[in-house]
Amino acid sequence: MAFLINPTTARDLLVSSRSEVLRAPVLGLVSAVILYGIFFFGAKLATMLFPSAGSMVKSVYTLKEGSSTGLIVGLLVFIIGPGEEIFWRGFFQKRLEERYGYYGVILAVAAYTLVHLPSGNPMLIVASAVCGGFWSLMFYYFRSIWANMISHAAWDVAIFVLWPVYC
């Protein structure tokens, strides 16, 4: 959708400077580790504040049951992480920033969080707000969709496949 509505989104994605090629993987991986740490410690806090947090988090992880690990990793790395970043930060947030400045970042985070409301899972909604805020600020300050895509994909694989965080 982002590519169809605004073809410059694709151009921006494909055009990278040499410094971006070196910077994006480092920034992406370091930020994924930081976000994982936020969730690791956040899970401890959630269990103290909300007795039902554990069951809400477990329900998110049950979504992957019965699927091959390779398929999950492939979807997270090549479709879900990059696709969400291209749309939410590279297209949606960028347009809101052009119109509303920094308030566009706040609106983008709010929209990213709101689309998770139909899940009915308060922990997933809070998680989407934290991730949306993190990746939106990352994009706002570093202007690297590649770093965001790497961060999102690496964090997804870490949190959903390699080292799930349960409350």
Question: What report would you give on this structure?
Answer:
Helix content is about 80%, strand content about 0%. The radius of gyration is 16 Å and the shape is globular. The protein has one domain. Helix 5 packs antiparallel against helix 8. The model has no long low-confidence stretch (mean pLDDT about 90). The longest helix has about 30 residues. With about 170 residues, the chain is an all-alpha fold.
Query: What oligomeric state do these chains adopt?
Result: single chain
Helix content: over 70%
* Weakly predicted, low-confidence segments: none
What structural class results from the helix and strand content?
Answer: mainly alpha
Q: What is the distance, rounded to the nearest whole angstrom, between the alpha carbons of the first and last residues?
A: 36 Å
Largest sheet properties:
none
Labels describing this entry:
mainly alpha; 8 helices
Provide a brief overview of the structure.
With 167 residues, the protein is mainly alpha-helical.
Write the layout of secondary structure elements.
Elements: H1 2-5, H2 8-14, H3 18-49, H4 53-61, H5 69-100, H6 102-114, H7 122-142, H8 145-162
